[in-house]
Amino acid sequence: MTSKTKVIQSDLIPANLAPIIEALCLVSKDVAKIIAKGSLGQSLAHQVGENSDGDGQKALDVIADDMFAAALKETSVRWYASEEQEDAILLNEAGKYALAIDPLDGSSNIDVNVSIGTIFSIYETKEGAEESFLRPAKEQLAGGYIVYGPATALVVTFGNGTMQFVLDPDTGAYALAEKAMEIPQTSKEFAINASNYRHWTKPVRAYIDDCLAGVEGPREKNFNMRWVGSLVAETHRILTRGGIFLYPRDGRKGYENGRLRMVYECAPIAFVIEQAKGRATDGSDPIMNQAAETLHGRAPLVFGSAEKVDRVAAYHDLPEEEVSALFGQRGLFRG
Ligand SMILES: O=P(O)(O)OC[C@H]1O[C@](O)(COP(=O)(O)O)[C@@H](O)[C@@H]1O
Ligand SMILES: [Mg+2]
Ligand SMILES: [Mg+2]
């Protein structure tokens, strides 16, 4: 990329947010290079600490966080809230925006060469940090992610559809690949960490049981399962070929609201999905209408093809006796 060409050039990016998106793209190129060096480069996967959510902090979590914070300090971002920092930090006193970020999502995959990513969310800033981030997800100005996979791609929405830009290794710039992504409405794939089956609530167990029952069960068709352990990778797959993702609340201590954090994971992913004509709920109610109570507060997350997400909500609405019934007696809409 010559110094003249911008890292991302598109009239589809609102002018007021372009400098922030450019900063995210420039840092993402450096993060992609660090990841691409793998074990030839600095060690990325060893634990260097613990974040406020009690997760082990990998070296790359912290490296990426430092890189994004430093670059965004030069933009109009006033508050910077990160998975890797206890509290939001003041970057630019005069900044107009509040940015929340999961600098490195899918950390358990860093050392096994599986796709990982960065998730971000942008709001109009308010005076204080809490009021800037603890607000309904539908107030986001922008939401998106960068996935570091076989291709490095930026998927972003500003409220007028979901766009995909791909990093062209030949030019070193992100180029528009899709102007309006739409989630395919039919798919036979579901994504859930099935090892937690015994901890799930009855509606979620019933929904998965009925998928597993295949053609012999009430769904009368067979399904396939995927679980990458990287939210951005699952999101990208579902945006591209449909399906449903579930990280529900479960009975484990600390998982009363699932594992994913509202401010820098659920809210931006919900925004991207809804703008691609999909659906994102906590199992029953839209994520976009909800606000986190604390910066690292969690929310159960179910998203994907609208009909599938609606079906999960219907399981939550079933009377207790019907949920517990063996599959086949459920009064659910057929199809
Ligand atoms: O290991 P589990 O319980 O299956 O959870 C996997 C989920 O955890 C996450 O890795 C959490 O994100 P971080 O890696 O940023 O902490 C998601 O990307 C992924 O969907
Ligand atoms: Mg994450
Ligand atoms: Mg993370």
Structure, explained:
With 335 residues, the chain is an alpha+beta fold. The protein folds into two domains: 17-181, Fructose-1,6-Bisphosphatase, Chain A, domain 1 (2-Layer Sandwich), CATH 3.30.540.10; 189-329, D-Maltodextrin-Binding Protein, domain 2. Helices cover 27% and strands 23% of the residues. The protein is built from eight helices and 15 strands. It has helices at 18-37, 59-72, 129-133, 202-212, 231-241, 262-274, 306-317, 320-324; strands at residues 47-50, 56-58, 77-82, 89-90, 97-105, 116-124, 142-148, 152-157, 162-168, 173-178, 189-191, 224-226, 244-247, 279-281, 301-304. It is globular. The site of one magnesium ion has 4 residues, from strand 5. Its EC number is 3.1.3.11.
Feature tags:
alpha+beta, 23% strand, 335 residues, five-stranded mixed beta sheet, 2 domains, globular, D-Maltodextrin-Binding Protein, domain 2, binds magnesium ion, Fructose-1,6-Bisphosphatase, Chain A, domain 1, binds 1,6-di-O-phosphono-beta-D-fructofuranose, eight-stranded mixed beta sheet
| Oligomer designation | single chain
Helix content: 25-40%
**Approximate strand percentage:** 15-25%
* Number of discrete domains: 2
Cofactors, ions and other ligands in the entry? 1,6-di-O-phosphono-beta-D-fructofuranose, magnesium ion
The mean pLDDT is 94
Uncertain segments are none
Family: Belongs to the FBPase class 1 family.
Binding site for Mg(2+) 2: 102, 105, 265
Domain Fructose-1-6-bisphosphatase class 1 C-terminal: 183-316
Cofactor: Mg(2+)
